[in-house]
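To close the chapter, one final illustration. This time we ask the reader to focus less on the individual chains and more on the assembly as a whole: which components sit near each other, and how the overall shape emerges from the parts.
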Amino acid sequence: MPKWGMVIDLDKCTGCQACTTACAMENNTLPGESWQDVLFYHEGKYPNTSIKWFPRPCMQCENPSCVHVCPTRATYKTDDGVVLIDWNKCIGCKYCMIACPYGVRFYADERPLLEPDIRQAFPGSDGQMWSPPFQNPESDWSKGIGIQPRGVVSKCTFCYHKISKAPAGVTDLDEDDPDLVEYVPACVRTCAPKARYFGDLDNPESKVNELIANKRGTRVFEHTGNKPQVYYLGEHGTVPKFDPQFDDQA
Amino acid sequence: MVTGYLIMMLYEVHGKPGLEEYRPIAGSESPLRLDTASCLPARSTHSNCAACADACPVSALQVSERGPVLTGDCLGCGRCAAACPTDALQVQGFPALPLPGQPAPSVTRLECWRVPEAPLRSGTLHVPCLGGLDASRMLTLHRLAGPSGITLVDRGWCQDCPAHGCGTGHPADRALETANHILGETGVPDADLPRFSLEPLSEGMASRDLPGRDLQARTGRRDFFRRLGGHAATVHGAREDNVGTDPAARVLVGKHVPSRRRRLAAELVAATGSATTPAAVPLLSVNGDCDGHGVCAAVCPTGALVRDRGDTTSRLHLDASACIACGLCQAHCPEQAIRVVADSGGQPTAELNRMEQRECDDCGRNFTARHAHENTCHPCRKSRRFAAAGFAFLTRGGPVVTDQNHGGKSG
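The assembled structure is written out below.
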């Protein structure tokens, strides 16, 4: 059984948001509710400012705080290392959103982030929150795949409907391999500068492990003990020092 | 015979109609039925409710994450069902007592099934065990009995009965005490309250031929290990999932007030005109640590707690006539701000706290603000913190400005 993980090379990432768009198309997420997003951050005062961007999928933690707090056992960790939500069990209490240190869980029932509200243009049927004319036929509420019902939390699934069908024993899901391209998560497959790599973290031969070892792959917020399965690479990167001021949960 | 008529009139045949869906507990012949969607440990990982297992006089029940599991021989006494705060358990054989407004026969005495028909007087209700009735049903029986009040007849056998268990006191003590506390508050004089009456009969008269029951509790070595075996099976039970896309499968979202709570309210309305008295209302308190997330309201199984979010204020509201003091809100509060202080003594309706709602500077959604200086919502603050950590990573942990006005999420 693989332990799927992702490596994102920040030196290659151009912040183009193609991953965000591909994710939204693949998973039919509401406009603005981006399971995968690229965050832009700037510091300093004119003229001495700098801006950086930072792609953010779900970290699929090894020790996920969301799973620990879920009252109804709706969110769970699969054997191949992905954190999923069972929408049949989720009651939308949002405790997981409070517990997640990375802010990668979404509750889309509220006011839309982008106007006009597309849910009014395509009202939901069959229990779906909204029913756009073009839908990914893959749907499994017990894994949080497809268009969600009202009143549930949703999140990145690492495109579980694709990766779970990958042939056994594969070390890496590389979009350049014609035999595997259909099993590659949408964000990885679409990344134009090939900043994303996806593979088995448990396999010492995998490309992702090689990258993590050779380029000092780093996980964000190591101090939380969540042990993300998403690693970031950056030539000038160092492990950020833990600044308690940044950790204000208030 | 009057007793026979009563039993015919009151007995239910096929379980209780209503919102609950009772199914026999798997792999058992016992009269015990379970509505999994109402059971607190099945609803929530944070619930440590084991009321049924604690109440079982022969330790035949164990609580798993799917609700109670039978690991021994069930007596069918109904003490688990009487203890369950959410009416998730039901034991067949107990009469469906009429609610106010329904045709009500007169019942003045309550006896257990072991008492043979011969010494029964008219107006007697025969139940599997006196300990199988909860306080709300005691209130109904009190109403049916009229001015003289209901008498629970102890034939002197209760103390040694297997359904008594190892505790002290009578099995019906707790329900009777609660009912009397509530009735006392509604102005019923002490002399008319439900009460025990000791009318000893010879042990030899006790009926052994009970409907489908074996009253000989087995507590041998074999049984002990059988219980352990059952426990192991529940621990290693395979995960069953509702596969597919089916809105009807989402049972945990549902909230409903347990029938005992509805009965209690109906009885109180019939007696006093009001659905609550302080004795029947739990006391909840919220302290200043509340962040207004509303997890308590989301997990409340009865819908008694509501986080009412307006444009400018967010209020936490308690409808005490639906509160069952189950403690799920307390177990789930991320800030440990809410507490069930006592299971009686509260207010009928209460606004537990009121907070300010503001529009988030970043995403424009309304959020509940705890401090005056908060201008971004919780998820947006998290995104900003994440991006700041990324910035620090890419700039070798360089200086990071923590001023809230700098930086921000876009795109």
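Residues 237-241 of chain A have pLDDT under 50 and may be disordered. Chain A touches chain B through 67 residues (CB under 8 Å). With these observations in hand, you are ready for the problems at the end of the chapter.
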